[in-house]
Design a protein that fits this description.
This protein is mainly beta and 171 residues long. The chain has a 4-stranded antiparallel beta sheet with strand order 4-3-6-7, with no helix packed on it. A 4-stranded antiparallel beta sheet has the order 11-10-13-14, with no helix packed on it. A 3-stranded antiparallel beta sheet has the order 1-2-5, with no helix packed on it. The termini are far apart.
Length: 171
C-alpha cells in the first residue's frame, strides 16, 4: 500500500492511499493520532485533514480485510509548525537597567521617544509583583528602592508591544 501526502497552504493535509493487492479488501480506515476518523470503501481512497494546528501528527491508513482483521497498513508522522512572521529589527527598543546590583535606586534608560508610555513592573523571587508604575521618558530613576529586601528581582518593562525583562540584585 502506498501513502503519499500533499500539504496545502490552507492548513489542511490530503492523504491518498491505494491498496495494491485488493484481493481481501473490504475498506480503508484512516486514523489520526490513534483515533479512527474515516472508513472508505473505494480504492484508491482519499482523506483530508482540515484546520491543522501546531503539534505532532501520526496518520495511519489500514486495510481491513473481509472478516474485519487488519491486512496491511502504512503510516506517516510529521510535526506541523505555526507560520511565523518576520521581525522588523528596526523597531526593537534597547533598554539598559543599572546599577546591578543596586542598593537604593535604579535607572532605566531606553531609546524610545520621551512621549511614549513605559510600564515598569518588578517581581520578587516568588514572582509576586512588588512594584508597578507607568511613566513617560527615556531615562527613569527609581529612587525609593530602599524598601525592598535583599534578593533577586525581575524587572519587566513594556513599551508598546515590546517587552523587556532583566534580573537585578538588591544588596
Amino acid at each position: 500500500m502506498k501513502i503519499p501526502s500533499s500539504y496545502q497552504k490552507q492548513k489542511k493535509i490530503i492523504i491518498k492511499a491505494q491498496v495494491t493487492n485488493d484481493m481481501f479488501y473490504k475498506d480503508l480506515v484512516f486514523t489520526v493520532n490513534g483515533s479512527p476518523v474515516q472508513a472508505i470503501k473505494k480504492n484508491p481512497a482519499e482523506y483530508t485533514i482540515s484546520n491543522i494546528t501546531e503539534g505532532e501528527y501520526t496518520i495511519k491508513a489500514m486495510v481491513s480485510g473481509t472478516y474485519g482483521s487488519e491486512k496491511d497498513s502504512a503510516e506517516i508522522s510529521f510535526y506541523a509548525k505555526s507560520k511565523t512572521t518576520d521581525v522588523q529589527t528596526d523597531v526593537i527598543m534597547a533598554f539598559t537597567v543599572y546599577p546591578n546590583p543596586f542598593t537604593n535606586s535604579l535607572v532605566i534608560k531606553t531609546e524610545n521617544s520621551s512621549d511614549e508610555k513605559i510600564r515598569i513592573e518588578i517581581y520578587n523571587f516568588e514572582m509576586r509583583r512588588v512594584y508597578l508604575d507607568e511613566v513617560y521618558g527615556n531615562e527613569i530613576e527609581l529612587n525609593d528602592m530602599s524598601i525592598f529586601s535583599q534578593g533577586i528581582y525581575l524587572i519587566k518593562i513594556t513599551s508598546g508591544n515590546q517587552i523587556y525583562s532583566q534580573k537585578v540584585v538588591k544588596n
